[in-house]
């Protein structure tokens, strides 16, 4: 007796992830948007793809994404930081300022310490 043959299933065509036509984004467009908003390369490219290459829509997309990130970080504790002082040359104004960060890696960075000193100086310059 012959074994029954397995029925062949019809091949399914791969489904497209979206109905949108593929948008080709040039490196110059990514560079221009990054210069305008300071976002990372991957986020910038994704924003341009999502917006169909429209710079203004891409900026809006990045702003919304940035707000979502900010909401996530809103509850984080900034327990590390630096204390900076500044005394004006005439000794009539002095400033003591504390600038905090979430991590000790940022707090020990020379740029962060310079930023804290600059904040103290600006406060003294604009009492």
Summarize the topology.
Elements: H1 27-37, H2 41-50, H3 55-73, E1 80-87, E2 94-101, H4 104-107, H5 110-125
Antiparallel strand pairs: 1-2
Helix pairs in contact: 1-2, 2-3
Describe this structure in words.
The chain has helices at residues 27-37, 41-50, 55-73, 104-107, 110-125, and strands at residues 80-87, 94-101. With 127 residues, it is of the alpha+beta class. The chain has two domains: 27-73, Helicase, Ruva Protein, domain 3; 80-125, Tetrahydropterin Synthase, Chain A (2-Layer Sandwich), CATH 3.30.479. The protein has a two-stranded antiparallel ribbon. Strand 1 and strand 2 (94-101) form a beta hairpin. Helix 1 (27-37) crosses helix 2 and helix 2 (41-50) crosses helix 3 (55-73). The radius of gyration is 27 Å and the shape is elongated. It starts with 26 loop residues before the first helix and ends with a helix.
Features:
single chain; 127 residues; alpha+beta; Helicase, Ruva Protein, domain 3; Tetrahydropterin Synthase, Chain A; 2 domains; two-stranded antiparallel ribbon; 5 helices; 2 strands; elongated
Q: Numbering strands along the chain, what is their spatial order in the largest sheet?
A: 1-2
Domain count, please report it.
2
The share of residues in extended strands comes to 5-15%
- Taken in chain order, the helices and strands follow as HHHEEHH
Largest pleated sheet:
2 strands, antiparallel
Poorly predicted regions: none
Rg (CA only): 27 Å
Count of extended strands: 2
Q: What name is given to the CATH topology of the largest domain?
A: Helicase, Ruva Protein, domain 3
Helix content: 40-55%
Terminal-residue CA separation: 101 Å
The helix tally amounts to 5
Shape descriptor reads elongated
| Helix and strand composition category | alpha+beta
Q: What's the CATH first level of the largest domain?
A: Mainly Alpha
> What is the annotated CATH architecture of the largest domain?
Orthogonal Bundle
Mean pLDDT across every amino acid position:
82
Q: Give me the CATH superfamily of the largest domain.
A: Ubiquitin-associated (UBA) domain
